[in-house]
Amino acid sequence: MTEAEKQPKVINKSGTLKMTDEVAATREQKDIGGRRMNRRNNRRDRNKADLTPKEFDEVTINIDRVSRTVAGGRRMRFKALVAIGNHKNKVGVGVAKGNDVTSAVQKATTRAKKNLITFNMDGETICHEVETKATGADVLMKPAAPGTGIIAGGVVRSIIGLTGIKNLISKSLGSTNKINIAYAVIEGLRQQVPRKDWNTTPAKKAEKAEEKAAPKAKKETK
Q1: Helix, strand or coil for residue 71?
Q2: pLDDT digit string (tens) for 143-183?
Q3: Residue 169 main-chain phi, psi, to 5 deg
């Protein structure tokens, strides 16, 4: 009698023999139709997720609960403020409402992608000082020397952190409404003009005037 026959047979509660680990490792599982079960690995939902880094990072700055009074009572919804950026010179802000927090954030992210802007930078800071207003919010931003860091708080820091700006001084002078402050920051970045295009000297002003006058002169000659 062999050693395998000498070993006691293990029987399950259902009355069937229990397979040993060696036998179970070599057997192939099949479905009712006799097909192999390992085809599940080829399904789309079982593939590994895409691990490539995203181009844009997003930050949820604020979520408010808003209500609207209707005939049946109050209808509660959520309003989300989301900012996205690529840590370079692209940034956007979006505001949206939804029945729950998740849908509100998704809608706001979609709007932020549609409202992306590309602004000019001077190294790791902004090109020049700018003060912008959006409704009641008034935001002042100044360029800073290397090593200064981002001296800002709240909404301004969240938005600037998604850009390539590493040195900045800012101050909020008006309303504390977060949405208006966010719009003011975006407008300030949009107004950035590179140093080579500044009209600070009479010579540069004359050059700009000549460039503008040249197309007019060509039209008159025609």
Answers
A1: coil
A2: 999 999 999 988 999 999 999 999 999 999 989 999 999 99
A3: -120, 130
Query: For the domain 130-196, what is the CATH code?
Result: 3.30.230.10
The answer to whether the CB of 88 falls within 8 A of the CB of 118 is no
Compute and round to an integer the Cα radius of gyration of the chain: 32
Is there a contact between 107 and 98 (Cβ–Cβ < 8 Å)? yes
DSSP 209: H
Q: Looking at domain 57-118, which CATH architecture does it have?
A: 2-Layer Sandwich (3.30)
Residue 28's SS3 state is: coil
Answer yes or no: is pLDDT of 52 > 50: no
β-pair type (168-172, 150-151): parallel
Task: Count CB atoms within 10 A of the CB of residue 123.
Answer: 12
Q: CATH 3.30.230.10 spans which residues of the chain?
A: 130-196
Cα-Cα-Cα-Cα dihedral sign, residues 196, 197, 198, 199: positive
Which token pair is 94? Answer: 């979006």
Q: How many CB atoms lie within 10 A of CB 142?
A: 17
